[in-house]
Amino acid sequence: LTAAACTRSFNQMETHLADWIRNTPEGNEVEAVLRACVHCGFCTATCPTYQLLGDELDSPRGRIYLMKQMFEGGEVTSSTREHLDRCLSCRSCESTCPSGVQYHKLLDIGRATIEKLVPRPAGERVQRSLLRTVVPNPTVFKTLLKAGEIVRPILPKAWSEKMPRRSKKAGKRPAPRHQRRMLILEGCAQPSLSPNTNAATARVLDRLGVSVIAAPEAGCCGAVDFHMNAQEDGLNRARNNIDAWWPMIEQGCEAIIQTASGCGAFVKEYGYLLRNDPVYADKAKRVSELAKDLVEVIRKEPLETLGVLSGKKLAVHCPCTLQHAQKLGGAIEEVLKRLGFNLTAVSEGHLCCGSAGTYSLTQPEISMALRDRKLDALERGKPESIVTANIGCQTHLASGGKTPVQHWIELIDEALTARFVPNH
Question: Going residue by residue through the chain (424 aa), what tens digit of pLDDT does each one get?
Fold first, then answer.
């Protein structure tokens, strides 16, 4: 049977929402998502946590049933919250689902709801508050990262491995000189962890006739707050970025580039998330239309004019936020092949590496198990380097201490540098 035929053989899920959510904007969204689900179970085959734990309640279908029970006024416990916490938000299930269930929208509402119904223990609340204070704040994050590097040698191995490492320093960015201009989201953790990524992006695009412009007033995209159930704080960060970018948008900015696919997936949701905001709805919609992952921009450019023909052997890890959320699976591979890179075969490419934003800190055991599984798949072809498109995946995979891990744009920049800088 085809997936469509299998879908028709199941019934839509009936819903009887509780009075406190029925006919509200959130309730209407919940009902639409629940009714789209035909409980076929296809999602369980591609869910990383179900593959690892084998528990139906740690699969999308199981979590949907838990949330349905909650929204219908049934019993909700800390166990319910734990199963929702274990979800990586990788959205692999959405790529698999033949019914087009928008699982992540239900999950966002479910997590925000259960946070109120079943308050967390004090320790978890403190941990989450600290993460929300540190990660989205570049100055604080950079300061703590430097402190961590100083004490790393005396830390236990288990702690040392979890601490992110900074990659090489950024090279010089070219001054804006082209008529074509694109904004870039600098990010919050990436400037400290991988400062060369955005600089490499600016250099490569400069050779393609595009100037990259930063908006200093813009900050964290808002995903960290939003996905840790401080949703209004996340939306306020989105509003701040819209305000910071708007003058350049009015001046004809061609696109807003994100070099971290996690940020890109969230910025592309601004229009949906702020659709009911009378002040920002139209602007948010425009920002989402302009938001582009770097690979969307690069793949449309005349790459052959760069003159790069590298035979370096690479393994590509396509982040979940790129392949499942932004539907750009295979785009990085396409670009690298056009430039002559030798790509190894990678099995289970649809599965999450376990990074998932702050997940590696809040769910370390599951996260590390998924990381090791992913590294085994990536390193099987003995690549010289692993490349990816998201700073969280990059630092998480690099913590395995094996093959070097970089953003893919840095490999292109290195190839260009080798071509244009004479040997001495």
Answer: 344 444 444 567 788 999 999 999 999 999 999 999 998 989 999 999 999 999 999 999 999 999 999 999 999 999 999 999 999 999 999 999 999 999 999 999 999 999 999 999 999 999 888 888 888 888 887 787 777 676 667 655 655 666 666 666 778 899 999 999 999 999 888 888 888 999 999 999 999 999 999 998 999 999 999 998 889 999 999 999 999 999 999 999 999 999 999 999 999 999 999 999 999 999 999 999 999 999 999 999 999 888 887 889 999 999 999 999 999 999 999 999 999 999 999 999 999 999 998 998 899 999 999 999 999 999 999 999 999 999 999 999 998 878 999 999 999 999 987 765 544 4
Q: How far is CA 92 from CA 67, 97, 181, 274, 348, in A?
A: 19, 9, 34, 25, 12
Q: How many Å apart are CA 120 and CA 187, to the nearest integer? A: 29
CA-to-CA distance for 330 and 87, rounded, in angstroms?
Answer: 24
Half-sphere exposure of 352 (CA within 13 A, CB side): 32
Q: How many CB atoms lie within 10 A of CB 11?
A: 8
- Please tell me the pTM assigned to this model: 0.90
Lookup: tokens for 22: 């029925």
Question: Does residue 351 sit in helix, strand or coil?
Answer: coil
First to last CA, the chain: 64
Distance CA(236)–CA(224), nearest Å, equals 12
* Closest to 320 measured CA to CA, from 287, 285, 348: 348
Q: Which residue has the tokens 């540190």?
A: 134
User: What crossing angle do the helices spanning 103-117 and 78-85 adopt, rounded to 10°?
Assistant: 140
User: Pairing between strand 180-185 and 291-293?
Assistant: unpaired
| Sequence-separated (6 or more) residues with CB below 8 Å from residue 293 | 257, 258, 261, 264, 322, 326, 328, 331, 389
How many C-beta neighbours within 10 Å does residue 382 have? Answer: 9
* Contact yes or no for 315/383 (Cβ under 8 A): yes
Task: Note the helical H segments in 153-221.
Answer: 157-162, 190-193, 196-207
Pair 212, 173: CB distance under 8 Å: yes
Helix, strand or coil for residue 361? helix
Contact yes or no for 329/346 (Cβ under 8 A)? no
What Å distances lie between residue 127 and 13, 81, 83, 228, 362, CA to CA?
Answer: 37, 16, 18, 11, 8
